[in-house]
Design goal:
Chain A is an alpha+beta fold. Chain A is 39% helix and 18% strand. Chain A starts with 6 loop residues before the first helix and ends with a strand. By secondary structure, chain B is an alpha/beta fold. Classes of the chains: A alpha+beta, B alpha/beta.
């Protein structure tokens, strides 16, 4: 990466990153990318988020699901760690709490693959600065 | 189509599982069970009106649903597509029925400003931060705004220090800027030490770039090219993420020399603390960074005038910094619409203790404690009664039921005998003994006192001794007066904030729970049943069958007796562990 040397550069990069994400979200390709975000702050890691993230990475690869698994910070639901957010193409993000390996398996089989919601969703109860 | 049912503790207690069963039953009857899934979710944060049922995708929000309503929901809403009017939420302001969840005013009580990216972006990828308007504020400041304009914007926003003191941030920046010096420093105080608090850690772990960006903005305003983050070594993950973030920012040219081609230089280094509570105090923090003992010194001179290495130093807390980029991007007038008259914006709280939804929340200033505890926190664990909420950590106080409807802001909390502090919020239920709680906090201050001034070093020790005496049942009525008097002296004569506020947990518990202190002193009883020395296990002879179960399980051999003969507990040996009480199958053991 070369250095950003002006504000215009910075704005260009922002546009680029945003369009990259948009592309990921709006692509018409039926095999679009599923996004999996695992809450990996101290609270999550202490409750076993590392293993869950590893599990998602391995399972999704093995089952050939086109997905991006990333880590993120504390979602605030520390009582329900490990928490995992799943963004299916064209769908609103869904957060699952208390994700164990069994639960992760269920999430992959039922929600990611078939699009059916399962128990254990945490409703989003906050506003963002964009609202 | 989906039907979501709240499975939070509050709603579960009001039969949400039954509702699920009933819904499934009726869906089954109409052969809809394959098309429509009924899903139990976590808490919707609107427990007052639970159980909540939400229908997707039309987002219809039903409140106070009973199992008997399941039939109507299926027949009317699902089959005929008509919302069930009597179950809709009525807006209290105009009596209109609200169909969609997004239109309910207090459905979403939290606003995430400082936590805007936490749990949203990957903290180890700077591009995700840039994609969320990251470093735009810095760019704007460096290219479009003068130092005075930026400072005025921060002043106008009404942002106050989130570390606890509540000093206006813009004013602090202005004071530091106005001091002439060849070198100035920007310091980020990440020495978070309150028991149960983890706001700063989560921000640094989830969104380190927001702090880096804000420090650079601060550097631009006050005329500094050097930033330091004072962070405790016991936050390894936060340190790791911060290091990664600094490295990435340097690679992208957003830290270092000639940032964005504007000629502005700024670098950030880390300084590690060993985890001493007193080092959260500005002057002690600076001494610790210099390699000296973490002891506070008298102010003035304030760090703004003479701080790190004797140079003007601007110290702000992590959360304060995290607010800055948003203020610059969205403008002071957007920010200062949120909150109360004197406290603007939001506050992050670490919700802990006997509460269902332990977690990290961010609410607008002016939200009441009741909303935080019952709506966001989901109420008290195991359906127990609320007793008290502790805010402000070891420097704060315990607030009772009567303060539940107090809007949270800096002034109101102080008026109620506590303080904002950095944002730890510990909820206590009816099983907590307030004398023991005061003792717990005092143990903390005792351990964390640096020992420099005698009121804090010796005074707190004496306070602790008196509290121990009371919890052991050896207290006298005069002890309560002694506690009050000694507390006042410590508050008046200690050198720094730690000592000046250390008696607060004692004073506020005496003020709000004097009856509990009196019960300990006068009756030798602990109303919450927590003080072991005041408890007594006895065997009721008539009920004891002499089965020897308690005798065999007692870890200290305090129980004597023979088979089929009533046993006896020797009180001088008993350690009140309660094993006999749990093991006895005949309820022959009493606890008084």
């Amino acid at each position: 990466m070369s250095k950003i040397t002006s504000l215009a550069d910075l704005r260009r990069i922002k546009e680029e990153v945003q369009s990259k994400i948009k592309l990921r979200e709006n692509s018409d390709n039926p095999e679009q990318v599923v996004q999996v975000k695992v809450g990996m702050a101290t609270c999550g890691i202490a409750s076993g988020a590392r293993e869950i993230m590893k599990y998602f990475v391995e399972e999704l690869e093995q089952q050939a699901v086109d997905a991006v698994v990333t880590q993120t910070g504390c979602m605030g639901y520390c009582y329900a760690e490990p928490t995992v957010e799943i963004i299916l193409p064209h769908k609103a993000p869904v957060v699952f709490g208390f994700v164990t390996k069994t639960k992760a398996e269920e999430i992959i089989d039922t929600y990611i693959k078939k699009g059916k919601l399962i128990d254990g969703i945490i409703p989003i109860t906050y506003k963002t600065i964009d609202e | 189509m989906h039907i979501l049912i709240c499975g939070g503790t509050g709603c579960k207690a009001s039969e949400s599982s039954d509702i699920k069963e009933k819904l499934n039953y009726f869906l089954n009857e109409y052969d809809l069970e394959d098309e429509i899934q009924v899903v139990l979710t976590g808490c919707f944060g609107f427990c007052e009106k639970g159980p909540i049922v939400k229908i997707l995708p039309d987002n219809t929000f039903y409140i106070e649903v009973k199992p008997s309503d399941a039939e109507d929901i299926v027949k009317e809403h699902i089959i005929k597509g008509r919302p069930v009017h009597r179950l809709l939420y009525k807006n209290p302001k105009n009596d209109f029925k609200v169909t969609s969840a997004t239109n309910i005013d207090f459905y979403k009580k939290q606003i995430r400003i400082a936590l805007r990216n936490c749990g949203f972006i990957n903290p180890e990828n700077i591009e995700e931060y840039i994609g969320r308007d990251g470093y735009q504020a810095l760019g704007k400041c460096l290219t479009e705004l003068t130092r005075t304009q930026v400072i005025n914007e921060v002043k106008e926003s009404g942002l106050r220090g989130r570390g606890g003191g509540g000093f206006p941030t813009g004013l602090k920046w202005e004071i530091t800027r106005n001091v002439e010096a060849d070198q100035k420093y920007v310091v980020c105080n990440a020495d978070e030490g309150d028991p149960g608090a983890f706001m700063d850690r989560s921000i640094l772990e989830g969104d380190p770039h927001s702090v880096i960006e804000a420090m650079a903005i601060c550097g631009y305003c006050i005329g500094s090219d050097s930033g330091l983050v004072y962070i405790r070594a016991e936050y390894p993950l936060a340190i790791e993420r911060l290091k990664t973030a600094i490295k990435q920012a340097e690679e992208y040219g957003l830290l270092g020399e000639d940032i964005l081609g504007t000629g502005f230089n700024f670098k950030i280094e880390l300084r590690y603390g060993a985890g001493a509570f007193v080092c959260g105090e500005e002057t002690a923090l600076i001494h610790s960074m210099e390699g000296l003992r973490g002891e506070p010194t008298v102010k003035p001179p304030f760090p703004s005038v003479s701080g790190y290495r004797g140079k003007p130093t601007n110290v702000n807390n992590v959360e304060t910094f995290a607010n800055i980029p948003v203020i610059i991007n969205k403008g002071a007038s957007w920010f200062n619409k949120i909150g109360t008259e004197k406290s603007k914006g939001t506050k992050v709280f670490a919700l802990a203790g006997k509460i269902n939804n332990v977690g990290l929340i961010e609410v607008p200033m002016g939200t009441t404690l009741r909303e935080v505890i019952y709506d966001i926190g989901g109420g008290i664990k195991d359906g127990k009664g609320f007793k008290s909420v502790q805010t402000g950590g070891p420097s704060g106080g315990c607030l009772t039921k009567k303060f539940l409807d107090t809007p949270i802001d800096y002034e109101n909390l102080i008026a109620a005998g506590s303080m904002m502090g950095s944002g730890g919020m510990i909820v206590m239920d009816e099983d907590d003994c307030m004398v023991s709680i005061a003792k717990f906090y005092l143990e903390f201050t005792l351990e964390e006192s640096c020992g420099k001034c005698s009121p804090c070093r010796i005074g707190n020790k004496r306070l602790h001794e008196i509290l121990c005496k009371i919890t052991e049942g050896k207290g006298e009525l005069e002890d309560i007066d002694r506690l009050k008097m000694l507390s006042d002296v410590i508050k008046d004569t200690s050198l720094c904030g730690l000592g000046q506020s250390s008696p607060n947990p004692v004073l506020s518990t005496i003020l709000n729970f004097e009856d509990e202190y009196l019960a300990h002193v006068n009756d030798g009883k602990c109303p919450a049943g927590q003080c072991k020395s005041l408890m007594r296990y006895d065997i009721i002879e008539e009920l004891c069958t002499g089965c020897t179960l308690c005798f065999r399980n007692c870890p200290v051999g305090a129980i004597t007796g023979e088979r089929r003969v009533p046993h006896y507990i020797d009180q001088s040996i008993c350690i009140k562990c309660g094993v006999c009480f749990e093991k006895c199958k005949f309820n022959a053991i009493t606890l008084t």
